Amino acid sequence: GQQVMQIPQYQHVQEGEDFTTYCNSSTTLSNIQWYKQRPGGHPVFLIQLVKSGEVKKQKRLTFQFGEAKKNSSLHITATQTTDVGTYFCAGDNQGGKLIFGQGTELSVKP
Amino acid sequence: DADVTQTPRNRITKTGKRIMLECSQTKGHDRMYWYRQDPGLGLQLIYYSFDVKDINKGEISDGYSVSRQAQAKFSLSLESAIPNQTALYFCATSDASLGTDTQYFGPGTRLTVL
């Protein structure tokens, strides 16, 4: 079946350093979504990418969707302690349900 | 999201017991989902429902059953709980009319099976 792989599983950074998480799907996706889960919380929708090669920015966060619509990345510039949490990508193949990656847990040392 | 509620928030039970987790939503969404989360495994889909008369198995449905009592309510049952069902369970909703499956999660239920 369809799989979505996400790396790394954990990332520890010093505050101010950059952070990137990568997502790869075994099949072409109609769109990809990103979610953030704060410690002790629930996943919260961040953004959706639909077009091949699409790049979207939210303040210090940059999201990219690959040309083949099979991979995506989330880059955070100059991390802050408020960025702590687990970031999930989720692929949508128009089957009516999302396939979530395993998530990348980000910790930020002040 | 306060529009999606789950009860109970925490539950400790014993092996072999039947347990039901409940989810309610006031968002008016037609689609509802149940996921379990285990460390390092992300979110795994257990069951999903696109409307009241529609129930579908997800990736890991064995040992679970669901009931969609109304558009706003979707419950998950463990008929005979076992320790490896200890996990964090999330309910989620989405609105098909928006043309996307963006999901809105409840606060989660932490289940421990002894």
Write up this protein.
The complex is a heterodimer of chains A (110) and B (114). Chain A is 0% helix and 55% strand. By secondary structure, chain A is mainly β. In chain A, the strands form 2 sheets. In chain A, strands 2, 4, 5, 9, 10 and 11 form a 6-stranded mixed beta sheet that branches. Chain A has a 5-stranded antiparallel beta sheet with strand order 1-3-8-7-6, with no helix packed on it. Chain B is built from no helices and 11 strands. In chain B, strand 5 and strand 6 form a beta hairpin. The N and C termini of chain B lie far apart (30 Å). At the A-B interface, strand 4, strand 5, strand 9 and strand 10 of A face strand 4, strand 5 and strand 10 of B.
| Largest sheet properties of chain A | 6 strands, mixed
Helicity of chain B, as a percent range: under 10%
Give me the number of helical elements of chain B: 0
Radius of gyration of chain B: 13 Å
Distance between the termini of chain B: 30 Å
Q: Specify the number of helices of chain A.
A: 0
Percent range for β-strand residues of chain A? over 45%
Mean pLDDT of chain B: 94
Order of helices and strands of chain A: EEEEEEEEEEE
Mean of residue pLDDT of chain A? 94
Rg on CA atoms of chain A, Å: 13 Å
Oligomer: heterodimer
